[in-house]
Every structure is written in C-alpha cells, then in structure tokens.
C-alpha cells in the first residue's frame, strides 16, 4: 500500500486526508473543523425542514476516519455545533454517540463563533484555543498572530474545470505560517479559496491543497495566478 501524502508545516509532519481532516502522527491526533452538528434541525426549527441525518453522517465519517488513522485524540477546531442552542434539539442517540466518542478518545472542543464552548455538554475538554509544539490551534485565524496557526472557519473550496467541466472540492489553504482546514460537516457549504475573506489571511502567496488518489495536489493562490498541480510530499510556502 502506498504511503500517505505528507504535509510539512511549521517543522512538523502532518497527513492531510481526503476525508477533509488532518492527522498529526506524532500526537496521534485527528484534527477537524466545522462539523456543524444539528444544522438540519436548526433549519427545521426555522421553517425549512431538512432530513435529520446530517449529524449521523458527520459522526459516521468522523468515527471511520479516527479508526482508519488509529487516532488517540480528536481535536475539533470550533463550530462543531451549528449554534449554541443545539443541546435543546439534539436527539438522544446523537448525544449518546458523542459521549461514547469522548470515552474512546481524548476529545477536545475548541470554541467557535457559532457554538461557543457548548461541546463540553457531551464529554471531552473545552478550550478557547490549544497550543501544541509551538503551533496555535483555534477556530479563526487572528491577523496579529505571529506563531504558526491551524484554524477552520472559512470552509475553503477549490474550483477547477477538468476536461471543461467545472467542479468544486473542499480544500486546505495555507502558507508557511497558517493552515486553514476544510469544513468536515455533512451540510457545510464552502467559500472559494481565492475569495478576499480567505486571501486576507495570507500576506502573499499561499496554496490550495487537496488529496486525490493518495497524492497531495497543490495549487498556488494569491500572488501566483497560474495553477500548476504538484504531488507527493509538499512543504507549503516553499
């Protein structure tokens, strides 16, 4: 079996996953952002009924990805729940699954702008941010941060037109100091990775990255207008 692609960031080796997650082997940590659990029930409560299966689908994929990587910890980088009132709507079986997950792995909930610190209601640890090996993990990038930073919030997507057929895929966005994760949740939309709101987090050149066929494809953004895919082992910002 081919080795997974490696992403070198801030002097550490990470494994970007096609499941829209990041694995940090040194810490056995699966890092995800923007689960937006109970989004469908939020829409239903506001008069737009949607099938109530998004939380199950998201947790199915989260559990499967944790099992595939052998993760000992799951770090959720905010907006894990769609809103701060999710506890009032969450179904008992979803709550039970979250508690079981917290029993199996070290579960960390980082506060997001949607959910605050509500994740702790189902087990695990809650925090405003996490600092590991000099890397700051939080929900949204802070403009004045000088340390390496891994965040979520923006739901970046890469738009391509292979064979003349436009497609959009969730992607990572990053340079040598900042890395923004794609949204993991089942009902999360996306923002074009070249949009001003994302580009503003990077002072110049940055890259959009996605995993396909066990290769990490990298596309220059920002100052570099041309897009040329590269593969295998990628050191972003170089």
SSE layout and pairing:
Layout: E1 7-9, E2 12-17, E3 21-24, E4 29-32, H1 39-45, H2 54-69, E5 73-76, H3 86-89, H4 92-104, E6 106-110, E7 125-127, E8 130-132, E9 135-137, E10 149-151, E11 156-160, E12 167-170, E13 172-174, E14 178-180, E15 191-192, H5 196-199, E16 206-212, E17 215-221, E18 234-235
Parallel strand pairs: 1-18, 4-5, 5-6, 6-7, 9-10, 10-14, 11-15
Antiparallel strand pairs: 1-2, 2-3, 3-4, 8-9, 11-12, 13-14, 13-16, 16-17
Describe the model.
- There is one protein chain.
- The chain has a single domain (7-235), classed as Purple Acid Phosphatase, chain A, domain 2.
- It is 18% helix and 30% strand.
- It has helices spanning 39-45, 54-69, 86-89, 92-104, 196-199; strands at residues 7-9, 12-17, 21-24, 29-32, 73-76, 106-110, 125-127, 130-132, 135-137, 149-151, 156-160, 167-170, 172-174, 178-180, 191-192, 206-212, 215-221, 234-235.
- The two termini are 28 Å apart.
Keywords:
Purple Acid Phosphatase, chain A, domain 2, 18% helix, globular, eight-stranded mixed β-sheet, seven-stranded mixed β-sheet, 18 strands, alpha/beta, 238 residues
Low confidence ranges: 224-235
Helix and strand element order: EEEEHHEHHEEEEEEEEEEHEEE
CATH class: Alpha Beta
Helix fraction bin: 10-25%
Q: Report, as a whole number of angstroms, the end-to-end distance.
A: 28 Å
Q: What's the count of strands? A: 18
Task: Compute the CA-based radius of gyration.
Answer: 17 Å
What is the CATH topology classification name?
Purple Acid Phosphatase, chain A, domain 2
Kindly report the average pLDDT value: 85
What is the count of structural domains?
1
How much of the sequence lies in strands comes to 25-35%
The description of the largest β-sheet is: 8 strands, mixed
Shape estimate: globular
Seen as an oligomer or otherwise, the chain set is single chain
Structural class: alpha/beta
CATH architecture: 4-Layer Sandwich
What is the overall number of helices? Answer: 5
Query: How are strands sequenced across the largest beta sheet?
Result: 7-6-5-4-3-2-1-18
């Amino acid at each position: 079996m081919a080795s997974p692609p490696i992403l070198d960031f801030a002097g550490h080796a990470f494994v970007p996953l096609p499941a829209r997650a990041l694995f940090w082997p040194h810490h056995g940590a699966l890092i995800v952002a923007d689960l937006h659990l109970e989004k469908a029930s939020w829409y239903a409560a506001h008069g737009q009924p949607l099938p109530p299966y998004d939380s199950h689908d998201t947790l199915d994929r989260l559990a499967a990805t944790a099992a595939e990587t052998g993760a000992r910890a799951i770090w959720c980088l905010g907006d894990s729940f769609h809103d701060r009132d999710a506890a009032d709507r969450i179904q008992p079986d979803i709550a039970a699954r979250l508690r079981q997950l917290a029993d199996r792995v070290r579960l960390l909930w980082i506060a997001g702008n949607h959910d605050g610190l509500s994740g702790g209601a189902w087990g695990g640890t809650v925090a405003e941010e996490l600092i590991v090996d000099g890397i700051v993990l939080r929900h949204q990038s802070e403009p004045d941060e000088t340390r390496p930073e891994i965040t979520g919030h923006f739901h970046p997507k890469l738009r391509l037109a292979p064979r003349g057929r436009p497609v959009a895929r969730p992607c990572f966005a990053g340079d040598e100091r900042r890395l923004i994760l794609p949204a993991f949740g089942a009902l999360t939309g996306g923002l074009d990775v070249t949009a001003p709101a994302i580009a503003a987090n990077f002072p110049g050149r940055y890259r959009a990255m996605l995993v396909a066929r066990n290769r990490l494809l990298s596309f220059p953004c920002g100052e570099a207008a041309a897009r040329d895919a590269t593969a295998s082992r990628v050191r972003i910002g170089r």
